[in-house]
Specification:
mainly alpha, Growth Hormone, Chain: A, disordered C terminus
Length: 407
């Protein structure tokens, strides 16, 4: 273990990030469980609920590269602590029934989006990656992402317990307190003590405009961005609308919670395995295989008869594939461009992920209200899986300073 951590700063940063990501990603995993509560208590339609998730997805995406740029220069805690405060406030307000009309879009949309942009795994993963050399970078990213999966397993169960013991509003107030307490570990996510730049590039000391111009000129970077769009569409569609989908299929009341919890639990395994494999094998091949398996999993879930067993198997299988995209995707960006601007560049990739998330959340609700089912959203998710499978294969993973940029 001592050989894994370059120094104490890296150790404290990784452990702190694990706590923060566990909570921020865990709380987000529960939102789909409350769509019916918001409809009854606040009169929110599925389209309005989906729109709020879509709004926080897009703000999450827009502000992640902005916060990434700040954290690249000043340290993660500078953005993590304010983001957690925004996130905590949103939970507190919703716990006090500010969930109608525009309040839903502000709280579940804007404030949650800002909270996730500065304190979710998508920004903490590149923050932590900066502390580790290339041979351990994907492992570190996998550990942080796996802790997000741990939260995604724990918090749906907690949400179900809180709702059964008290009310759904109490759940949100308790989430608010927990999020605020995460400001303490968030303060320990600092910049690396020593530079571990194994890949030196001419991006390192350039302006923001020059960094973006150089990276976007790289064909592999553009393909990675398009592939991550698919990831966003799929996971947000599932997290937001699967609880209502299985309810409409007449399955047991616990299956929606079980799917989200199983996704979180098996996501831990999936991300750790992908982090390990990404340090040994071609990351683009691993990503292509992952998206192909997602497509097969969705086909089986949608077209086979709906049962409690099929729901459990779906949660297990898709959990293994859930955020396993992150270590490999983050690893490709670091491998090509180095780590000095990693939070910014991964933030750009993630922005497109969130455009996919916006459509996954919104179209799921829209199709449901218009056609009475989520079928068209599922069909689209399946087609996108196989498109993403093909998109990753041509990516050139070599460091940009060792090969002429492909355009």
């Amino acid at each position: 273990m001592n050989n894994f951590f370059p120094n104490k700063t890296a150790q404290y940063a990784l452990l702190s990030a694990c706590f923060v990501v566990c909570v921020t990603m865990g709380v987000r995993q529960t939102f789909g469980l409350y769509s019916s509560e918001f409809e009854v208590s606040g009169g929110a339609t599925n389209t309005e609920f989906g729109l709020a998730i879509a709004v926080h997805a897009i703000f999450w995406g827009i502000f992640t590269p902005i916060f990434g740029r700040i954290s690249d220069r000043l340290g993660g805690y500078v953005v993590i602590v304010p983001a957690l405060i925004f996130y905590s406030i949103s939970m507190l307000l919703m716990g006090n029934n500010y969930i109608s009309g525009m309040w839903l879009q502000i709280n579940l949309g804007l404030f949650v989006g800002l909270g996730l942009a500065g304190a979710a795994g998508t920004i903490l993963t590149p923050m932590i990656s900066k502390h580790f050399p290339n041979e351990n970078r994907s492992k570190a990213a996998g550990i942080v992402t796996a802790c997000g999966g741990l939260g995604m397993f724990i918090f749906p169960i907690l949400a179900n317990i809180f709702k059964n013991v008290s009310t759904w509003q109490i759940s949100f107030i308790l989430f608010s307190i927990i999020l605020f307490l995460m400001c303490i570990p968030g303060f320990f996510v600092r910049l690396p003590k020593n530079k571990l730049e194994n890949v030196q590039t001419n991006l390192d000391n350039r302006s923001l405009k020059e960094v973006l111009k150089e990276s976007l000129a790289h064909k592999g970077f553009r393909l990675l961005i398009l592939g991550f769009f698919v990831c966003g569409f799929q996971i947000t569609l599932i997290a937001t609308h699967v609880p209502r989908y299985v309810q409409d299929k007449g399955l047991s009341d616990w299956t929606g919670m079980a799917i989200l919890a199983l996704i979180g639990f098996f996501n831990i395994i999936g991300t750790l395995v992908m982090g390990y494999l990404s340090d040994k094998y071609s990351k683009k091949i691993l990503l292509s295989a992952l998206y192909f398996l997602r497509g097969i999993t969705l086909i089986l879930f949608i077209f086979l008869p709906a049962t409690d067993i099929s729901a459990i198997l779906f949660g297990t299988a898709f959990g293994l594939l859930w955020l396993a995209t992150v270590p490999a995707t983050n690893g490709i960006v670091a491998q090509i461009f180095g780590t000095k601007n990693l939070s910014l560049l991964f933030g750009i990739v993630f922005l497109n992920h969130q455009l996919g998330s916006f459509l996954g959340a919104y179209l799921g609700g829209y199709f449901y209200d218009k056609f009475g089912s989520f079928d068209y959203a599922w069909y689209l998710a399946i087609v996108l899986s196989f498109i993403a499978t093909a998109l990753h294969l041509p990516i050139d993973e070599r460091p940009i300073n060792s090969v002429k940029v492909s355009v």
